[in-house]
Design a protein that fits this description.
Keywords: Signal. The protein contains 12 helices and 11 strands. It is of the alpha/beta class. It folds into 2 domains: 190 residues, 3-Layer(aba) Sandwich (D-Maltodextrin-Binding Protein, domain 2); 119 residues, 3-Layer(aba) Sandwich (D-Maltodextrin-Binding Protein, domain 2). Strand 6, helix 7 and strand 7 form a beta-alpha-beta unit. A 6-stranded mixed β-sheet has the order 2-1-3-10-4-11, sandwiched between helices. The longest helix has 22 residues.
Length: 323
């Protein structure tokens, strides 16, 4: 994630005053109806929990219910299409992510939408960092030791993922490229099976969002976080850059986008409300393992472009194929 901390500090400074003022939406009489967030994720997972958490702090500000409508399928394409075809009135928004906005355009040759032509970015809201975790019996206790071990055993260190083209797969490829090592990718049909085999010692390493939890239970060992800064969940863990391998920042971000024809002034007003909702202390308390990363529409658009370019380069260099 390349978003800087300064915008968040400005939001924090202004949040107290903003809470005392009438909402921009209330002042204009908008929205007159409930707001719907189309999520391309199934119920119960992180991609579903996060928009519901945002909705809980957003709806008191706007004076209307904020509802989450799950439309999973086709690697998030079904939800994206439903949102893209909605009226550009700010009442239907899309729960966008790294996958739908930056990876799908590379992975799917006939993707029926263009992230920046068919959508108007509103704000990145959350980032779920990936942790570098290893099997307990692997004889390494730091990133540098892992790099040395991989160099001494070229092509023999295995890294697991939830499938070809998944975020944890691409994270492993990026790490190998940045560290100058050769590792063997072992794809699974979902992250669950990969983690099970990692704990059993069948594979060696993995990049995983829930890595800290497994490390705390003693089931796996966490070496570092693939982020540009240490996380709230595990401040004791260094970033991979701090540990000696720069350029390995990987996180799954989530945010809001609107249909492309949504008027820009309306996009900006929605973004302002979302930004102020995100600094609600209750949100940080409810989501201790996720980084809250509010952005502007312009920052979100820049992030989409940067991530697409980064992953296109990684995918080409590693000759990644998609399931």
């Amino acid at each position: 994630m390349t978003l800087q901390s300064e915008p968040r500090r400005r939001l924090l400074l202004g949040a107290g005053l903003a809470a005392l003022l009438p909402s921009a939406w209330a002042q204009t009489g908008w929205p007159a109806k409930p707001v719907r967030i189309i999520s391309p994720y199934t119920a119960g997972g992180l991609g579903d929990i996060l928009p519901r958490a945002l909705a809980s702090v957003l709806q008191p500000r706007i004076g209307q219910p904020v509802l989450v409508d799950n439309k999973p399928g086709a690697s998030q394409v079904l939800g994206a299409q439903a949102a893209m075809r909605s009226e550009p009135d700010g009442l239907t928004l899309f729960w966008a992510s790294t996958t739908s906005m930056a990876i799908n355009p590379i992975a799917q040759k006939k993707l029926p939408y263009d992230p920046l032509k068919d959508f108007a970015p509103i704000a990145i809201c959350f980032t779920a960092p990936l942790y570098l975790i290893v099997r307990p019996s692997l004889p390494v206790k730091s990133v540098q030791e892992l790099v040395a071990y991989a160099r001494a055993n070229p092509g023999k260190v295995t890294f697991a993922s939830g499938g070809n083209g998944s975020t944890n797969h691409l994270a492993g490829e990026l790490f190998a490229q940045q560290a100058g090592v050769k590792m063997l990718h072992v794809p699974y049909k979902g992250a669950g099976g990969a983690i099970t085999d990692l704990m059993a010692g069948t594979v060696d390493i993995m990049f995983e969002g829930n890595g800290v939890e497994y490390a705390r239970k003693g089931q796996l060992r966490a070496l570092a976080v693939a982020s540009n800064k240490r996380t709230r969940a595990a401040p004791e863990l260094p970033t991979i850059a701090e540990a000696g391998v720069p350029g390995c920042e990987v996180g799954v971000w989530f945010g809001l986008a609107a249909p492309a024809a949504t008027p820009q002034p309306l996009v900006e007003r929605i973004a302002t409300e979302v930004q102020h909702a995100l600094v609600d202390p209750e949100l940080a308390r409810r989501l201790p393992d996720v980084e809250i990363t509010p952005s502007t529409p312009q920052q979100m658009a820049a992030q989409v472009r940067a991530d697409t370019a980064k992953w296109r380069k990684v995918i080409a260099a590693a000759n990644v194929t998609f399931d």
